[in-house]
Specification:
Shape: globular
Helix content: 25-40%
Structural class: alpha/beta
CATH class of the domain at 191-373: Alpha Beta
CATH architecture of the domain at 191-373: Alpha-Beta Complex
Radius of gyration: 28 Å
Strand content: 15-25%
Largest sheet: 12 strands, mixed
Length: about 775
């Protein structure tokens, strides 16, 4: 066939993963000449000339041998005659782009084994150097300001390479070739230790000294790649009690970091799937089941699970190496309600009352990124928080058109940018209920637009239907300033759309949306919904029973209020007084006075209602004493799940009731709660908690089958925050699957509110004309 020329364009995750040196090596191996170059749209362009058979073998090698963190999506090849213009194969200078990105650089990559080995080798210029990285690992999203991904557009531009680093950087056969994060102890960032007031502490080894301080019981702020953590012992009640006092965090569990998988297994059960995620290059926090002793009970009060991660930076690796403990607390460094601190001045200002010392470095964090959190249910991930290690990976759609901006919901939020058949969720933003977090959201969205090289206004802005959310108000403000239409999307429809987007579900599906709260089209608070959905619309065909909801959000903070409200559907006022008389003083903030206020509100009848499964779970948590006051999002339901695992089924003839009213099927949750109330005198609270979850699952499954039979649809999409509950998720899924139904749930984004922006973007992209 003779000599040929091929121009090859490769899209996907092909920048920042050592892809160009990989291309160089296989091109040389196949005897080809030409060049490889990074494009400004995050793709890679290759031009090769040589024997036609060698070119074909080269193209096969691209797919078969690509670096492990890369992801080759498409390879476009244009063939022609060889020109003979190339003398060798070279890696050319990156080219700035003007079109919307066809791919994107990778998320932050946990430190690789080779770099860890360099840090352990005496005489190496990376020996015990905490910023060791190469083309295969290190900061990416948290480091980059613009594409293409080159050093001058990252936080490393402030650290000129020494002669040795430059030599490695320019050597195509070196692991650090073209590694934008390359640095060593002679030319890179430095760690420093400070006291509580920001005064430098002079020491030869700041990391080892910080480790000694932690071992002695101090609380230390530690700057990483995506933000600043707070670290302390996880085995000392006194230390943890002090941290909880300082952070005003009485009950919310702390995340842990362990030095090794072996250490994790000393205090937690680890399945094969959980081990996969713990040791993956993404290094998320994985929620694991606790076993035995070894940790303080103050790590995760009232829970049987704990969130654990392994070190993903050299800083953390060296720190834990000097601490002889199975794990240390490694929680976000922020004041309550504020985003995690990312720069040294902010750390000194905001964390001085929380920590005793600061272990910081002099490298900028460009993009804030909290740690990602997931748990494994039925062998598949259920995201709780999607951030470092996953962002900015896009979610690929089967259809879509245009450019949209989706602002998500409010609590545990993430926004998203949709471009045709891709949606790019932002990093975790937190609760967007303050000006600080709203500003963080705006910066995160603007950064994505810049990195994706989107220079025009979006076609549509999508937001939640709730008119009072700060994100919804922001959507209207942007709309007015830029004359862009706003698409207000019902909360639970967005949840179900996120599942359809992930799994490329075309046509109709029955959505089961179970969560705490979402603004309904009827003005009530939804949260237990069965929706018949298409790509752009839905019909509500089933729900959990509407329960009275006077007092609004106060009912979510004091679960016993919700129990009283729910029982009012089956008990008289006097009966309510009788059954609650031994609990009101401890379960209600204002005791008898609050009970009478509630009863008075009920008698007036002018209140909103809620169909939320989250509120039903709250009621069972209050009934069993698992939780009387919510101090963090989802606490009653999480503690109920832990309590229920200690219980067992008991014999009963009770069956959940489903009734059809005004064309809408309804699961009678008030009757379930009344039944559970009747068991208080004869059953252990653990058994009641267990049966509460079981009966709810039985009712949900029966309602789902009823609706499937009536509509003729056998595909279900499951979403909403309740679907991070292991028992409910696995039992509902397995029960329906065993009957032949197709079940899909979120795996790439959280089923909770952190995933609604994906659903909003999916709906908006399918609505653009």
């Amino acid at each position: 066939m003779g000599l040929q020329r091929a121009k090859i364009n490769i899209t996907g995750r092909v920048q920042g993963v050592g892809f160009r040196p990989f291309i160089y090596r296989i091109a040389v191996r196949h005897g080809l000449k030409g060049y490889v170059i990074n494009l400004g749209d995050a793709g890679v362009e290759v031009v090769v000339e040589g024997d036609a058979q060698n070119i074909e073998a080269f193209i096969r090698s691209i797919r078969e041998e690509a670096p492990p963190v890369s992801e080759v999506e498409e390879i476009h090849v244009k063939r022609g005659e060889a020109t003979g213009e190339f003398k060798e194969f070279i890696i050319d200078k990156s080219r700035r782009g003007t079109s919307v990105a066809s791919g994107i650089y990778p998320p932050d990559i946990g430190i690789c084994d080779q770099c860890l080995a360099d840090m352990e080798r005496p005489g190496s210029r990376w020996y015990q150097y905490p910023f060791t990285a190469c083309a295969w690992c290190g900061p990416r999203f948290t480091a980059v300001e613009a594409l293409p991904y080159d050093r001058e557009r990252t936080h490393m531009r402030e650290f000129p390479m020494c002669a040795s680093c430059r030599r490695d950087y320019l050597d195509p056969l070196d692991r650090r070739f073209d590694a934008q994060g390359i640095t060593c102890r002679f030319c890179g960032p430095k760690m420093s230790l400070y006291d509580q007031h920001g005064n430098p502490i002079h020491t030869q080894n700041p990391i080892e000294e910080a480790a000694n301080l932690i071992t002695q019981g101090s609380i230390v702020a530690v700057k990483g790649i995506g933000g600043i953590h707070i670290a302390c012992l996880a085995t000392d009640d006194q230390v943890l009690g002090e941290l909880r006092k300082r952070k005003h965090r009485d009950q919310q569990p702390f995340a842990l970091m362990s030095p090794s998988l072996k250490s994790v297994k000393s205090f937690a059960e680890v399945s094969e799937a959980e081990e996969h995620w713990l040791t993956s290059w993404r290094k998320p926090i994985v929620v694991l089941r606790l076993k035995g002793e070894g940790l303080s009970s103050l790590v995760a009060p009232g829970l049987n699970t704990v969130g654990v991660m392994l070190p993903y930076t050299g800083i953390q690796t060296l720190l834990l190496k000097h601490i002889d403990e199975p794990a240390v607390v490694m929680t976000s460094g922020n004041k309550r309600g504020l985003p995690m601190a990312i720069d040294n001045p902010t750390a000194f200002r905001e964390l001085k009352d929380l920590v005793d010392y600061f272990l910081l470095h002099n490298r900028r964090i460009v993009n804030r990124a909290d740690d990602s959190v997931l748990r494994v249910i039925n062998g598949a991930p259920a995201m709780i928080r999607r951030s470092r290690g996953f962002v900015p990976d896009p979610i690929k759609l089967s259809q879509g058109k245009g450019v949209v901006l989706a602002l998500g919901a409010e609590l545990r939020n993430a926004a998203a940018v949709g471009v045709d058949r891709r949606v790019y969720p932002t990093q975790y933003l937190g609760d967007v209920d303050s000006l600080e977090t709203l500003e963080f959201q705006e910066k995160a969205m603007n950064r994505l637009f810049k990195l994706l090289n989107i220079t025009r206004n979006p076609d549509v802005i999508a937001c939640d239907l709730h008119p009072g959310y700060m994100t919804s108000r922001l959507a209207r403000e942007i709309s007015q300033k830029q004359d862009i239409p706003v698409l207000e999307i019902q909360h639970h429809f967005a949840h179900i759309a996120s599942v359809k987007a992930e799994h490329h579900i075309e046509g109709e599906a029955i959505g089961i949306a179970l969560d705490g709260a979402g603004f309904g089209v009827d003005g009530n608070i939804w949260g237990g919904e069965f929706l018949l959905t298409s790509s752009t619309g839905f019909k509500r065909i089933g729900r959990l029973e509407n329960l009275p909801f006077p007092g609004g959000d106060r009912n979510t903070y004091f679960p016993y209020r919700m129990l009283i409200l729910a029982l009012s559907k089956t008990l008289t006022e006097q009966e309510l007084r009788d059954v609650t008389k031994n609990h009101t003083s401890t379960a209600l903030e204002y005791g008898e006075t609050e009970l009478e206020t509630l009863l008075n509100s009920l008698s007036k009848g002018n209140y909103k209602q809620t169909s939320s499964l989250g509120r039903v779970l709250d009621s069972i948590a209050a009934l069993t004493g698992a939780c009387y006051r919510r101090t963090y999002e989802g606490e009653p339901a999480i503690k109920l799940e832990a309590l229920a695992e200690q219980g067992k089924e008991f014999k009963t003839s009770f069956k959940p009731q489903i009734r059809k009213t005004n064309g809408l099927y309804e699961l009678k949750t008030s009757e379930i709660l009344y039944f559970l109330l009747e068991q208080i005198k004869t059953q252990k609270k653990q058994n009641i908690a267990h049966m509460g979850q079981k009966i709810l699952v039985d009712g949900l499954v029966e309602l789902a089958i009823t609706l499937a039979n009536e509509t003729g649809i056998n595909t279900f999409a499951l979403s909403g925050g309740v679907f991070v509950n292991d028992y409910i998720t696995s039992k509902v899924s397995n029960s329906l699957q065993s009957r032949g139904y197709k079940i899909y749930r979120n795996q790439l984004v959280p089923p909770g509110d952190g995933g609604t922006a994906l659903g909003q973007a999916f709906i908006a992209l399918n609505s653009v004309t």
